[in-house]
Write a structure and sequence with these properties.
InterPro entries: FAD-bd (IPR002938), FAD/NAD-bd_sf (IPR036188), Flavin-dep_Halogenase_NPB (IPR050816). The chain has 11 helices and 20 strands. It is an alpha+beta fold and 391 residues long. Strand 9 and strand 10 form a beta hairpin. Helix 1 (14-26) runs parallel beside helix 9, helix 6 (226-234) packs across helix 7 and helix 10 runs antiparallel to helix 11. The structure holds flavin-adenine dinucleotide.
């Protein structure tokens, strides 16, 4: 690792790595560091991707590698949502073809390998801790690399640290949080045959999701709010999670028919926060935020990985311009696109959560619908759900 890079990308998720690749496509000779806090090869959540994923993959030159990597086509979804009959949503007539069920380990390894082949230095166990602004010279970043503090200087910083937006928040940039939910997710062995459709089911306390994975596992996830999480914990998280799954009308029986044992292993399902949130400013002098660091979505949208790549492609071009590449200006500034896409997402989410009216007294759905109504453009901010997060 050097002490100075032309660009430093904090966070080695899909957004950070797509930014690095896009940047290197335009500026092959510059020195780029990706500093990732986690370890290499860990299992990440986020396996359902829309057919359009092929577009940014094509822009990054990764289509052939992606197609050879054994990700599974996903024909659509089967859901119990807003009614007692199973609804189907499929991609039969989508010109881009089916959606995708990703093998995240292979997908992430593909992005890391492509970045390294392009000459990017990717360092794991390297967490951003602090920043010093050096007027006219850029930023000095303090990184914790495998327990040792290292200082790295650069003129271009990319915050790709996910919804926590560690760098932007260290600069004091606020984040608008429109809703926070919690997922309790488990990866379970899949001994039998299960559809490749995404399974979705609303329940009074939230919703369940199950998706077959390419490596003979299934990911099963319950999504609820803080009150639902508290109730679950009061009754013992693991037994309540299993009871909740057994009580579902669609997902539990489908998993049982495929021989999935929700009691396999004693480990509690992993708890993962889910934010619908937008950074107040997604760029500034010598820095920009990309992917979930800029705007994070509820996984009901299944857009997070796709959005990370699309945003990374655009962010890479912006950084390349900052590094002197002679690229034409973008038709619309990326900041405007991030804000517009977030507004669209809020409308779609409001529509989806508004469809579920079977439990008018259920606090989870009442609260989602109230917040969704307030997130609509032009809604009054009285009693607004929005929480502003600063460091
Ligand atoms: C429960 C759940 C289920 C989801 N399911 C789906 C799905 O099925 N499909 C889908 O498309 N999306 C899904 N998403 C969303 C998707 O995971 C994200 O939108 C996507 O990962 C965003 O990519 P990113 O690179 O912006 O952020 P991330 O993937 O979060 O990557 C950020 C990276 O930054 C690193 N980092 C954090 N802090 C630091 C630091 N201080 N220094 C250095 N590195 C740091 C982290 O270790 C991480 O690797 C889901 C999200 C959740 C929470």
């Amino acid at each position: 690792m050097r002490t100075r890079y032309d660009a430093v990308i904090l966070g080695g998720g899909p957004a950070g790595l797509a930014t690095a690749l896009s940047l290197k496509n335009h500026c092959p000779d510059i020195a780029v560091l990706v500093a990732e806090a986690g370890v290499a090869g860990r299992q990440r959540i986020g396996e359902s991707a829309p057919p359009d994923l092929l577009l940014p993959l094509g822009q990054l030159g990764l289509t052939a590698r992606f197609r050879a990597d054994g990700h599974a086509p996903c024909p659509g979804s089967a859901s119990l949502w807003g009614g007692d009959r199973v609804g189907h949503n499929d991609f039969l007539y989508n010109p881009m073809g089916p959606a995708w069920r990703l093998d995240r380990r292979r997908f992430d390894a593909m992005l890391v390998a492509a970045a390294e082949t392009a000459g990017v230095t990717v360092v794991f166990d390297a967490a951003f801790r602090r920043v010093e602004v050096m007027p006219d010279l850029g930023h000095r970043l303090m990184l914790d690399v495998a327990g040792t503090t290292r200082a790295v200087e650069t003129r271009q910083v990319v915050d790709a640290t996910g919804p926590e937006a560690r760098f932007a928040r260290a600069l004091g940039v606020e984040r608008r949080v429109d809703d926070t939910l919690y997922a309790l997710a488990a990866f379970l062995p899949l001994p039998g045959i299960l559809t490749w459709q995404t399974l979705l089911e609303a329940t009074p306390d939230g919703w369940w999701y199950a998706a077959r994975l390419p490596d003979e596992q299934v990911v099963v996830m319950m999504v609820t709010d803080q009150a639902g999480l508290r109730r679950l914990r009061d009754d013992g998280t693991l037994p309540s999670w299993r009871r909740g799954l057994a009580a579902t009308a669609l997902i539990g029986p489908r998993l049982a028919a495929a021989g999935v044992d929700p009691g396999a292993g004693d480990a509690e399902p992993a708890l993962l926060p889910i934010q619908s949130s937008l950074l107040a400013r997604v760029d500034g002098p010598g820095w920009l935020a990309v992917g979930d660091a800029a705007a994070s979505y509820d996984p009901v949208a299944a857009q997070g990985v796709y959005k990370a790549l699309v945003d990374g492609v655009a962010a890479g071009r912006d950084v390349a311009r900052g590094c002197g590449a002679a690229l034409p200006p973008p038709p619309r500034p990326r900041a405007a696109l991030v804000a517009e896409r977030y507004a669209d997402y809020c409308l779609n989410r409001a529509y989806l959560y508004g469809l579920e009216t079977r439990w008018p007294d259920a606090l989870f759905w009442r609260e989602r619908q109230r917040r969704a109504a307030l997130a609509r453009p032009g809604a009054s901010s009285d009693g607004a759900p929005t929480r502003v997060m600063t460091d």
